Structures are given as C-alpha cells and as structure tokens.
Amino acid sequence: MSWEASLPSLWQRVWDELEQGVCVAAHPARRPTFATISADGPALRTVVLRGIDRQSCTFEVHTDTASRKIAEVRTDPRVGAHVWLPEIALQIRLWAIAEVTEADPNRWSKIPPKSQIVYGGSPTPGTPISEPRDHTPGATIERFATLTCRVTRADIVHLGQDLHRRAVYEAPDWSGQWVAP
Ligand SMILES: Cc1cc2nc3c(=O)[nH]c(=O)nc-3n(C[C@H](O)[C@H](O)[C@H](O)COP(=O)(O)O)c2cc1C
How far is the centre of ligand 1, averaged over its atoms, from the C-alpha of 45 (Å)? Predict the structure, then answer.
C-alpha cells in the first residue's frame, strides 16, 4: 500500500518530510511560509525550519526579537506554516501555538558566527533606511529568539495521478479524518 493511502502512513510521511527539511538544505520543506496574525490581517514570510519534534508535534523557527513577527506572536500566539513538496505532490498546512524563547545560549552556540549576524544589527528589521548599505548586521544573542510552535491542526493534500486525497489531523489524538479535497 502506498504511503498516501492510509491516514497513519500519510501522517508519518508528513513528519518524515518535515524532518528532511530540517536536515537537508535543498529540501523544499526547509523554507516554509510562516504565518502570524497582525493588526493589518495575515502576515506571511519565508523562514528556515530549524527543528521538529514529532512526539510533541512541534516545529522550531529562529528569528530576531525585534522583528515584527515576534510582536505579533506576543499579541496573538496563533501561527501557521505552509509547505509544498512538488516531487511528491504534497501540501502541508499546519496551525500552531507559538512560544517565544529569548537568547538561548545552547541554540546560539550551535549557529555558525557568519549566520549569527542575522540576529541583531542596526537599525532593527523594517526600519526605513535611505539605501540598503545603511543597515549594519551584528550578532547579538539578546536579539536571538526561538519560536517553538506546537501544532494543533494539520490539513494535508496529496495530488495523486488517480485521486486527490485530503486529510485533517487534530490534537490530541492525531488519528486524522479524510475530507473532500
Ligand atoms: C529563503 C529565506 C529564508 C528566511 N529565513 C528566515 C528565518 O529563518 N527567520 C527569520 O526571521 N526570517 C527569515 N527570512 C526573512 C523573512 O522572510 C522576513 O523577511 C523577515 O523575517 C521579516 O519578517 P517580519 O517583519 O514579518 O517579522 C528568510 C527569508 C528568505 C527569503
């Protein structure tokens, strides 16, 4: 039986692919679209998937504490993530609750110095500047934040040659439910 044909194997494949996204730089799950709720409506941006934990159904994103998404999460912790995997025709949509951890020294020490410079810098993200060189990057652990996102719901679509399949999975049992595509 193929992986997309049963609810448990489809769910397992979702987490296998997310794990690949964490480990393999070129994998399409590496760069999900990450959504927050802003005062202006939905706010979307690309991020790097930094970690997953399939037992707790969480995923992790790193960001600058001064970025808009942190203010948005502090106001409303509901977030979303979207991944499209063209080679296996799979769409993953996740709803989650985000928790902010600031300046974690363990995670910080694992980031190469050339990558640490995206957390910090002056002026802060989104500040108007006269031209691009008017921004100075800087590695500042106090500006390094981890968003640990606890998934509460997932909506999965597989575009098979014979059949389009769609399933919704919800906490806490994650048994899944087929729905019309
Ligand atoms: C390929 C790619 C990967 C990115 N990865 C991250 C990331 O992991 N964390 C992050 O905060 N911003 C990342 N960004 C920048 C965001 O897309 C966004 O521009 C920035 O975080 C500001 O978003 P905000 O103002 O909505 O907070 C990435 C951008 C691109 C194009």
Answer: 6
The yes-or-no verdict on residue 1 having pLDDT over 90 is no
69-76, Cβ contacts within 8 angstroms, sequence gap of 24 or more: 69/34, 69/36, 69/43, 69/45, 69/147, 70/100, 70/145, 70/147, 72/36, 72/37, 72/38, 72/43, 73/36, 73/98, 73/100, 73/147, 74/100, 75/37, 75/39, 76/36, 76/37
Q: How far apart are CA 67 and CA 119, in angstroms?
A: 10
CA distance 79 to 151: 9
Q: Is the pLDDT of residue 8 over 90?
A: yes
- Out of 22, 27, 46, mutate this one to test ligand 1's pocket (max ligand atoms within 8 Å of CB): namely 46
For the chain, the residue count is: 181
Q: Which residues line ligand 1 (CB under 6 A)?
A: 31, 43, 45-48, 61-64, 67-69, 125-126
Q: Which positions ≥6 away from 123 have C-beta within 8 Å?
A: 129, 134, 135
**Mean per-residue pLDDT of the chain:** 97
Q: What is the pLDDT of residues 16-51, one digit of tens each?
A: 999 999 999 999 999 999 999 999 999 999 999 999
CB 21 within 8 A of CB 34: no
